[in-house]
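Bumping my old thread because nobody answered last time. Still need a sequence for this structure:
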């Protein structure tokens, strides 16, 4: 087999080359055509195609003429190979994007172990070898069927992880955006945590007497403001405005930085914490510094306080205190859902209403008794 490219017809077809392949077409060796031209100082060789694919010297010469004209007018010339390479760079395999996501986002992901397990178990078998452009609504439906026996929240978390990874790939120019919107299932098994009155009393007594002041102050701030754990970890001195009584929350879960009110109690907690920091980490700018004064990554000590306060085993300190803050305000009747949404840095009140617009058991009983009295039952 001759693989060396030869000029097809030097006088008739300038810059058109050809070689015989090992394949047969119409009883003769199939011919593969190339063109060559200069782009600046670079000599470009571009494959056009085979005779069996409908390409001939005339088509090759026409394509070459277009390339030469583009170069002459200063336009960017991209060969078919260049286009394929660029497309591959911007449409990488889902598995490659996911690995980059976990590597780059990993340190800031609270549930990275759970996310990785979910990814390996449910997403890799279905779309690990696909590019994002190959992920279709049919593929997502197949995922739904495969996970049909699982709880809605498990499916929701898996689909949400798929969406997160693809969004990361799109924002980092690794892939195109999904061509369709993923329809999320109804997640109806989420537990809203709160503390009973006697548990609140015991919790506050325990925290206020706790010897490790920074952890205690963090829990008190969570209790009186509903702030997320990560928001408190990122809190710096310049985020506190004691004159205007505002706490600036940088890059909250909802998006842009926002400020929430600083109550007298919260102000006292923060002043106490700044005094503690001045004694233990005077060089740190973080309000609740971690090891060596750097930004805190975790706070496992809260579980010890939870146990000492006798709180339920399933109560998650930071999540639970945020839930308790929101449900208590909603139940008080003194705050609108819009106000609560703003205090929790939610994007809109609809999410707040769906998640926290409910009565505590004691209030539901009182409402039931009131209804019975109106109806003449009491």
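Sorry it took so long. Here it is:
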């Amino acid at each position: 087999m001759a693989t060396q490219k030869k000029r097809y017809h030097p006088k008739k077809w300038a810059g058109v080359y050809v070689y015989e392949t090992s394949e047969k077409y119409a009883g003769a060796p199939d011919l593969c055509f190339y063109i060559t031209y200069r782009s600046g100082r670079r000599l470009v060789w571009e494959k056009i195609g085979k005779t069996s694919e409908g390409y001939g010297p005339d088509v090759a010469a026409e394509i070459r003429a277009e390339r030469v004209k583009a170069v002459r007018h200063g336009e960017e010339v991209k060969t078919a190979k260049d286009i394929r390479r660029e497309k591959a760079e911007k449409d990488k395999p889902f598995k490659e994007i996911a690995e980059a996501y976990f590597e780059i986002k990993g340190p800031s992901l609270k549930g990275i172990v759970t996310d990785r397990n979910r990814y390996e178990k449910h997403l890799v078998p279905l779309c690990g070898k696909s590019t994002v452009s190959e992920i279709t609504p049919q593929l997502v439906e197949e995922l739904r069927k495969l996970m049909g026996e699982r709880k809605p929240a498990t499916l929701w978390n898996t689909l949400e992880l798929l969406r997160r990874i693809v969004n990361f790939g799109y924002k980092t120019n690794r892939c195109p955006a999904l061509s369709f919107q993923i329809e999320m299932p109804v997640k109806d098994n989420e537990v809203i945590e709160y503390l009973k009155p006697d548990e609140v009393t015991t919790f506050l007594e325990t925290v206020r007497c706790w010897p490790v002041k920074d952890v205690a102050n963090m829990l008190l701030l969570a209790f009186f403001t509903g702030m997320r754990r990560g928001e408190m970890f990122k809190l710096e001195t310049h985020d506190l405005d004691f004159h205007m009584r505002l706490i600036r929350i940088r890059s909250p879960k909802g998006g842009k930085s926002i400020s929430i009110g600083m109550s007298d109690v919260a102000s006292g907690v923060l002043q106490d914490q700044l005094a503690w920091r001045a004694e233990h980490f005077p060089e740190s700018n973080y309000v609740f510094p971690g090891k060596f004064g750097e930004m805190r990554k975790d706070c496992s000590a809260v579980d010890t306080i939870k146990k000492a306060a006798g709180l339920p085993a399933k109560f998650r300190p930071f999540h639970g205190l945020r839930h308790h803050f929101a449900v208590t305000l909603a139940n008080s009747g003194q705050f609108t859902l819009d106000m609560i949404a703003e205090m929790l840095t939610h994007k809109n009140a609809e999410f707040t209403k769906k998640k926290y617009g409910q009565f505590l058991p004691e209030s539901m009983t009182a409402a039931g008794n009131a209804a019975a009295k109106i109806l003449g039952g009491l």
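Residues 105 and 268 are 35 Å apart (CA to CA). Let me know if any region looks off to you.
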